[in-house]
Amino acid sequence: MKTTLLLGASVALFSTSALAQENQNDPGQIHGNVSITAQQYNPDTLINAVVPDAETAMNAFTNLLYTRGNFRAGVRYETYLNRLEGYPQEFSGTGIGYRYAGFTNDKIDITVGNFYDQFGNGLILRSFQEPTLGIDNAMDGVKVKVNPYKGVYLKGLYGKVRTAFDSRIINSDGFVRGFDGEVNLNEMVTKMEASKHRLTLGGSFVSKYQSDDDPDLVLPENVGSWAYRANYTVGGFGLMGEYAYKINDPSLDNRYIYKPGQALMLSTQYSTKGFGIVLDYKYNDNMSYRINRDAKLANAMIGFLPSLTRPHTYNLAATLYPPAVQVNGEVAYQANISYKFKRKSPIGGKYGMTVAVNYAVAYSLDSTLNHGNSNSRYGYESTFLMPGEEKYFQDFNIEIKRKFSKKFKATLMYLNFVYNNNIQQGARDNEGNEVPGTINSHIGILDMSYKINKKHNIRTELQAMFVDKNDAGVLKHQGHWATAVVEYTYSPHWFAAILDQYNFGNPDDVFKIHYLIGTVGYVNGANRVVLSYGKQRAGLFCVGGVCRTVPASNGFTLTLSSSF
Q1: Domain spans, the chain
Q2: With the C-alpha atoms ordered 418, 422, 427, 429, is the resulting torsion angle positive or negative?
């Protein structure tokens, strides 16, 4: 803390000197935003709804950002009184959870205090915040960005990682050091400035330090990782790749083995008028990277392993079987193809029609366990780039969007999920126990929107999910589901919606429950207030392959957001 304050004072003095040369009548600008989510909990024995002792909970934060010339500073005040049920227990109390100061000019950018950043795809370093999941691994230290020559971008950072909040920032005992460099050849080489061929090369190095206090194991205290990346585009074609390597890093994730880790991400895309295709590949082998080797779930992360699956927004597709990235290792593929049929064509009709097909699948590693041999401390041997035989997850979906008139448009979607719950561990039965085996589900969705006039619009969603049966002829997991949504908008300020998620195929008639939620909201510019009431089913809530468990609840929820 003393070091950060000292550096902050240095930046402030430096910026004050620079600002003295500017207009002294400029007071600077203050911007910010406020977000509040408050929930009231009611008992509901039918769904085993949680009710905290206080019967209410609230998560809230306020950001205040000040800029003047080249100087900037900011602070975030956070409140968890108490935290929302299902939110990580590492969040509690009220106080300052983020603060920083910085200075920038044409050649250098300095930040002291808290900051977020990412190297490449984030394989060895991604510091970010995701409030909906309770993820905040902000760095606390110093970051310097330099542009010494056109097309050359360098940055270095040194600091600790936020691991919790208890009325103040709780940082890791260990710390992180990192360097990233990127070269844009088209900017650097004059003869390439006008070229259609665009090429960017980059590289990163990150090292973490955590003391070894284990009485039984000799653990590495300094764990280094590095990555190389390239991005090439020409016309509508693009190719991106990044490879990362990490030295041995025994942790709870890998059961304290000494095997090095590596990862590879490849993506190629092509687009032209009305057509686009994207192909992705990911290889992840023992690349979990945390500042605390004993942490679990999404806590204390340094690196990030992105999901290749499509981020679904429809209720059944997003909440029943969302895939989680396997930190120990997986091989994943994804293909996405979209085509827009022209207007006034036989298929496209008057306004055209878009068809998108997406397929994503993740497998285990092609690996062999080491038992009782000289390599046993490495845990297992794996074949680089090759998938194993066990399928972790599969998502196949087709989406058709068509506008039929100036007032009416619709989306039709089909999805098929193959969900290996022995690995994903997100599906639980009526008593909350994990369901063994693989679940195969089919989902159909019809989304219709009708614009009555300039101010009135009504949208309706109809969704249905059907699952397969087990060897005993009983529907797996909780059986079939259906969801209906009706949303009415009165522009420009008001909207109201009713959502009913119905477990009509549950093998136990007692649990054939309607999870009904009603919502009303008001929007005025940057201000938004939403009030909802109803039942929330227990399950997983995921964003980008990172998930948290959400308990069943019954009650009111109020959300308010505003920016200025």
Answers
A1: 309-512
A2: positive
